[in-house]
What does this fold into?
Amino acid sequence: MNQSYTLPKNKFDQFFEILKSDAQVFAPVKVSDKSYIFKQVTSHHQIAFEALRTILPPKKFFYPPVETIITYDKDGAVEHNEAIEYKVIFGVHPCDLPDSVSWILSLLLVQPIAIIYRDARPA
It folds into this structure.
């Protein structure tokens, strides 16, 4: 059963504050006349609702190009278990969803499941 909800414009600021209280919020932000990037925002006024396309796709948030999970030195290995921070990515277009979500999940959920991903993923 699919249900849809409409958020009245006059309630968006409250909605944004609720999101921001539990997570980091990322949204399209204008960086030049024709360019937008997904960037952390602290106010709903920073969001570029008119953004049609961003420089980098939102999948970079699901699968960052570089992430240090372990380092080695003469004394052995050091794991980098950083605290999990919840992120909300606002303003993702439907055309970005299959590429961003399905592809990443298919990589990370095959056996053996990446332990760090498994631990960071909500149950």
Summary: The chain has a mean pLDDT of 80. The longest helix spans residues 97-108. Residues 52 and 93 are 8 Å apart (CA to CA).
